[in-house]
Specification:
10 strands, Serine Threonine Protein Phosphatase 5, Tetratricopeptide repeat, globular, 682 residues, alpha/beta, two-stranded antiparallel ribbon, Rossmann fold
Length: 682
């Protein structure tokens, strides 16, 4: 062995090894710096490292076999006695070199920053296209106090124009508006989070009938300034400036621009700046409407603003489209589910189509109207296919496609559509909550937990999500403690949050049979009751359910009688609305009106069967099962529950195990088997 070591020294193998390791390390570090500048794919960098590592044992073998003498490379000679032994030692040397190279390569692979990212990411790493951009909020430099909406409008129109270009990926405004202007922004981090290569920043200053706009396009991968321009013109020319900026960006990103897309970019939204500001204010109210207790107030105010906008400019397409959206939502979500509101929605949709029948907004408005007002999912899908082509970067198109697929029972395809919408709007909490809702119905609780945690990363103070994350543990594992703590903490922080927690709080106090909590809950409910999933529940309904669960039969009966008068009036006024029929059936079951209750529950299911609506239909089946349970029809109740556990629906282990509504079935073998089938497996 000593002779072999001496031979290594004589042949300068040590020197070659040290020189190769030092030189190879330097080359790898240099490549890691240079390759990103030329936007080389990550696999090219990885292949380069592999080649450097695998050549290490080759270098050792060459150092053993050859020597440099007198400026020439000569083969090292061996005596006949030592040739065989040293050949074996050569293989040992190559094996050692290969082991060192392999260990180094493995270490580089495991501890290099990309390894952590790839292991922690959900699925393969997505390639960011060079033709992707986020238009960040512009900074308002105006002295005028009311110039904020104007500045927002400048940014928004540029974003909208770019979104018409199919060859670009453009992040939606909901996500970009979270990165406010005015301070130092880490553009590389923002671009990485939004999944884009480029960002656009700018400033707006309005004064004395003139406007000054600056815009700069930045490659966030290298922090390089790709393009910048300053415009100083008359205020009336603001839309022309926005068009010019959009066209410059399309050119800089080398995106294909069809004649139709070019015409769309050059189309002014309105000639009336006052109407445009009314539109911006209304749109913000509509967008803020998701999962809020001010839904009714926001939508009604938005309709008023938009009606004023279209009165000023009857050809204002975007205002007509948003007005149609607001009217449809008022009708669909049960805020004003009346023929008069339906007629108003129909008029707004037709006005949108009349202004520009070949526009993406016209087809999207028709699709939404067919979906929200008539549940005509097939025709809505046809309109949506046209809107998708005309509005290639519009998340609302993809989200509505996901809604339709979900209603028609194509749950997995629905999730794919919503995930595509999330690609264009990655920080949109509403889309993430819709994904959570789908996971909940599919009982994919792990996926639901991941999505809820993602929402809390973006909006850690989101009350609804904090409660939903804790409620998940009750539904999944029948553990009410996290929800109890979450509700207590939220109410301690903000007592006014009670109004937004009625449904979850009601579920909690009933599952815990909590008398004190029930009294506190009922005190928090106003005389008009509370809205849940588009249905207005009278306060007397809550009083009756609580009294029944706590064994106070007389009090429950008195409350249900009061509730019945209110709900029966709604049923008479809206005889084709399934949900009030179902609620009336449960009230009658609580009153012991067995035949009426069962008839009303079945009528609700007939009005909206699962075959027509895979999302809302199962809820009516659950109510019917509850009616059967309350009226002593245990076999019928278990039969409905057996159907429900075979469907995507939020019928959970925790609900059946803990909620007092199912007490009449406890001890029944069929019911206990159903509960056991939903128990967590891990």
């Amino acid at each position: 062995m000593r002779t072999f070591v001496q031979e290594l020294k004589n042949r300068r193998v040590y020197r070659v090894a040290i020189a190769y390791l030092v030189g190879g390390s330097a080359v790898v570090q240099l490549a890691g710096t240079v390759f990103p500048i030329f936007h080389a794919p990550e696999w090219v960098q990885q292949l380069f490292v592999v080649l450097v590592a695998t050549c290490f044992p080759v270098a050792l073998g060459l150092a053993w076999s050859f020597d440099l003498r007198g400026g020439a490379i000569e083969k090292t000679s061996l005596g006949s006695h030592s040739r065989l032994a040293n050949r074996k030692r050569l293989w040992v040397l190559v094996a050692i070199g290969s082991f060192v190279a392999g260990a180094g390569l493995a270490g580089y692979w495991l501890w290099h920053p990309w390894a952590t990212d790839s292991r922690s990411a959900e699925g393969p790493e997505k390639v960011i296209s060079g033709k992707s951009i986020a238009v960040l909020p512009f900074e308002n430099l105006s002295d005028e106090k009311d110039a904020g909406y104007f500045t927002e409008g400048v940014q928004d129109e540029i974003l909208m124009y770019l979104s018409r270009v199919a060859d670009l990926k453009v992040i939606s405004r909901t996500s970009v508006m979270q990165f406010k202007s005015g301070g130092t922004r880490n553009l590389r981090a923002i671009a990485s989070e939004l999944g884009v290569a480029h960002v656009l920043e700018g400033t707006v200053q309005r004064s004395s009938g003139r406007v000054r706009i600056t815009a700069q396009l930045i490659d966030a991968r290298t922090d390089a300034h790709v393009w910048a321009e300053r415009y100083d013109r008359e205020l009336a020319d603001v839309f022309e400036i926005q068009t010019e900026v959009a066209e410059k960006i399309v050119s800089q990103l080398k995106a294909r621009l069809s004649p139709d897309e070019k015409a769309a970019i050059q189309q002014r939204p309105t000639h009336d700046l006052a109407a445009y500001e009314l539109y911006l204010r209304a749109r913000n109210l509509i967008e803020a409407n998701s999962f809020t207790t001010r839904a009714k107030e926001n939508l009604l105010e938005a309709t008023r603003l938009l009606q004023d906008a279209v009165a000023r400019d009857p050809s204002f397409l975007l205002a007509h489209y948003q007005l149609a959206t607001a009217q449809d939502q008022l009708y669909h979500f049960g805020i004003d589910h009346t023929p008069a509101r339906l007629a108003a929605a129909e008029a707004a949709v037709q006005a949108t189509v009349r202004v520009r029948p070949d526009s993406g907004e016209a087809h999207l408005a028709l699709a939404q109207h067919l979906y929200w007002a008539y549940r005509d999912y097939d025709r809505a899908h046809k309109e949506l296919s046209i809107a998708r082509r005309l509005l290639p970067n519009e998340p609302a198109v993809l989200l509505l496609a996901g809604y339709i697929d979900r209603r028609q029972g194509r749950w997995e395809l629905s999730i794919e559509e919503m995930e595509s919408a999330l690609e264009l709007d990655p920080r949109n909490l509403f889309i993430l909550k819709q994904l959570c809702f789908s996971y909940q119905n599919l009982r994919r609780y792990k996926d639901m937990a991941v999505s809820l945690d993602r929402i809390l990363e973006i909006g850690p103070k989101d009350t609804n999500t904090r409660v939903q994350r804790a409620l998940l543990e009750l539904e999944w594992h029948a553990d009410s403690r996290p929800l109890h703590s979450a509700v207590e903490n939220i109410l301690a922080e903000d007592p006014d949050a009670m109004a937004s927690l009625i449904g979850q709080w009601m579920f909690l106090v009933l599952c815990e049979r909590n008398r004190a909590g029930a009294r506190q809950l009922l005190d928090a409910i106003g005389p008009e009751g509370s809205e849940d999933l588009g249905i207005q529940y009278p306060k007397a309904w809550y009083e009756g359910v609580v009294a029944r669960a706590l064994g106070d039969t007389e009090k429950a009966r008195a409350a249900f009688i009061v509730a019945r008068a209110t709900v029966e009036k709604t049923v008479r006024e809206q005889p084709t609305y399934a949900q009030p029929f179902s609620l009336l059936g449960m009230i009658d079951a609580g009153l012991g009106r067995k035949e009426d209750a069962i008839q009303e529950g079945r009528r609700a299911v007939e009005l909206l069967p699962v075959s027509k609506d895979a999302l809302s239909g199962p809820g009516l089946l659950e109510n019917l099962a509850m009616i059967y349970a309350w009226t002593g029809e245990k076999e019928q109740a278990c039969g409905q529950l057996t159907v429900l556990i075979s469907l995507p629906y939020d019928l959970s282990y925790g609900k059946l195990r803990l909620h007092p509504s199912w007490d009449p079935l406890r001890g029944d073998p069929s019911f206990e088997k159903i509960v056991a089938s939903l128990a967590p497996k891990e």
